[in-house]
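ok new one. same drill as before - structure tokens go in, u give me an amino acid for every spot. 130 of them this time. try not to just spam alanines like last time pls lmao
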């Protein structure tokens, strides 16, 4: 399974911890940061990474943070490509749920109610089921 993870700069540490947990379950994880190879433009690399992924994890960004709009753009592009998107609210940031439209994401997990291992398991299970 290949998972694309989208996050803002402010959530980089959370996304890296989540990436490590998802990889421990045997999934390959890519992001816009590691998808761009020499000679490729950002938009082509992003499209290829999204097209080749089995699903996308959106770490719901706090409004106004660096790359917040990019994270929502990446999740929207994935949905347009027919990819399942799982939204994750970082630890202790439940207020971010207001950033999601009611029908935007079929699955939303809160990172503070479960430990990182359980969160990664829930994400992988949801993407496999989609």
């Amino acid at each position: 399974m290949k998972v694309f993870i989208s996050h803002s700069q402010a959530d980089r540490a959370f996304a890296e911890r989540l990436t490590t947990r998802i990889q421990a379950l045997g999934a390959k994880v890519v992001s816009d940061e590691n998808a761009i190879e020499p000679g490729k433009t950002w938009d082509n690399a992003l499209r290829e990474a999204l097209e080749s992924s089995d699903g996308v994890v959106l770490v719901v960004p706090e409004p106004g943070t660096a790359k917040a709009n990019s994270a929502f753009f990446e999740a929207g592009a994935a949905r347009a490509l027919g990819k399942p998107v799982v939204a994750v609210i970082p630890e202790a940031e439940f207020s971010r749920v207001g950033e999601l439209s009611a029908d935007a994401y079929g699955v939303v997990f809160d990172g503070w109610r479960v430990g990182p291992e359980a969160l990664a398991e829930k994400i992988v299970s949801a993407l496999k089921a989609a």
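The chain has a mean pLDDT of 82. and btw The beta strands are 2-6, 28-30, 55-59, 85-89, 107-110.
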